[in-house]
Amino acid sequence: MTGTHRRFTPLQRLLHWLMAAAILAMLFIGVGMVSTVTPKYLALVSLHKPLGIAILVLALIRLALRLSHGAPALPADLPEPMKLAAVLSHWALYALMIGMPLLGWGMLSAASYPVVLAGGIHLPSILPPSDRLHTLLWDAHYFLAFAFFALILLHVAAALFHALVRRDGVFEAMAPTPTRDEAAPAE
Ligand code: HEM
Ligand code: HEM
């Protein structure tokens, strides 16, 4: 759904920026985890799992908001291939924000490892134990992490292109700051 409003709602913007920081942190925590054999591994992994599950919950909330509230229309003069690239890349980002945590949870379930959150909450296993499945999901989590990073770089490049070159309001639609209308008290 695409609306006629000019900006994403304040809640959509808050979630976007909060999750951008969390996802970037997750990519670096993940790479840190697999590049160390010191006890730091345990500290990193016990941060990686709950933060990843929090991202899954927030992404589902965000998807529901997106489906119910829609998004501001892209500028009418934006070439069709760029509109298509924006739409496809945004849905791919949603798929990765939901798919990556599910793959992480799934691969640990297949290896019979517990997924423990803050306060000792154990998440149920979502897959039966299977070495083959574990390897398959591990590979998918690994390769999709690189795809996620590459897509984020493209996304940031596109955002900067809109903000600095086209100056067409697309960046402002997601900017974390309130606009003058939002900041000014209602008359
Ligand atoms: C947005 C969410 C997530 C992102 C971006 C992410 C990213 C990553 C990255 C970049 C790696 C390192 C891959 C490599 O270079 O080898 C990794 C490894 C790992 N991830 Fe995630 N991850 C996410 C969610 C999760 C969740 C929710 C879990 C579990 C509940 C999880 C469990 C793991 C485990 C266990 C490893 C390490 C595997 C090993 O030590 O061999 N991840 N993740
Ligand atoms: C981990 C990092 C990020 C992820 C996963 C992400 C994800 C997304 C998604 C899924 C959308 C589409 C929103 C929707 O249609 O519901 C979006 C929009 C947007 N993002 Fe990001 N984002 C990230 C980082 C950034 C950064 C760093 C910037 C700026 C430099 C940025 C700027 C924007 C802008 C301007 C839009 C609005 C595009 C439009 O109106 O169509 N994002 N982002």
Text of the CATH class: Mainly Alpha
Give the radius of gyration: 19 Å
Helix content: over 70%
Can you tell me the CATH architecture?
A: Up-down Bundle
**Ligands in the structure?**
protoporphyrin IX containing FE
Summarize the main sheet: 2 strands, parallel
Q: Which fold name fills CATH's third level, the topology? A: Fumarate Reductase Cytochrome B subunit
Q: What's the total number of strands?
A: 4
Structural class: mainly alpha
Q: What portion of the residues fall into strands of 2 or more residues?
A: under 5%
Question: What is the topological layout?
Answer:
Layout: E1 2-3, H1 10-34, H2 40-69, E2 71-72, H3 80-110, E3 115-116, E4 122-123, H4 131-166, H5 170-174, H6 180-183
Helix pairs in contact: 1-2, 2-3, 3-4
